[in-house]
Amino acid sequence: GPGMDGIVRGLQAGDRFVARISYLAKGPEGDDLPADRKLADSHRFRILEVLEPSYPELGDEFAARVGKFESLEDLRKSLRESFRERFEKEAREQLETQARKELVERNEVDPPRYMVANIAIGILGAVEDTPGDEEQQKATSEIAFRLAESRAREYLVLRGIALAEGIEVSGEDIEKARREGESDASVRDRIRNARALELVTSAARIEEVPIEADRSADGEQDAGWEWILVEGDSDSGPGEG
Prior knowledge:
The protein has helices at about 5-10, 60-65, 70-105, 115-125, 135-165, 170-175, 185-200, and strands spanning about 15-25, 40-45, 225-230. The protein is mainly alpha-helical and about 240 residues long. A three-stranded antiparallel beta sheet has the order 2-1-3, with no helix packed on it.
């Protein structure tokens, strides 16, 4: 758990220590308040064994074994390309998600209720039936309708952009992108709106925001608690881990 890596780092087999869990109380600015910490019971630990990682020798033989590559350099090139494609895909998806959110929030469009209802029915139909009382089902329905309203507004905004920009969809495009049972009008709208979104993202001003450094010494997520060292110990006793 959080804090334990820092405690055991550098210890050897046979070493003992006492540690306990500290529940972190937070101040109004998110700062820790040590004076208000609630401490759990102490536990005694003994290091039974220290294991060291074993890594294979990197070479052409390793590359051939893991991916049938002719050389280690081929494997490295493949990994770099794979990482690049994944990064670009995730960055594009993140940009599109943010663009959709901004379009909905900045354009006051009141979608027809029948459109919202149809989308909500589709959302609810895709949700598996799960046990729940009437109140839970009502809450699920409300969430579906809020999501449906957002999707309807997004559709109308993108459609307006597509029409204003004169984005056209050919019959060949429709046939290539058609899904089973989908009408020409549905395919046309889907392609047109996707191109409108692409137009928006291509013109977007992207601002890079630095990632906040992890405050945890071990690089772990803040779980609201951590192990803290009480003392080194040479005696065994109850609660030894």
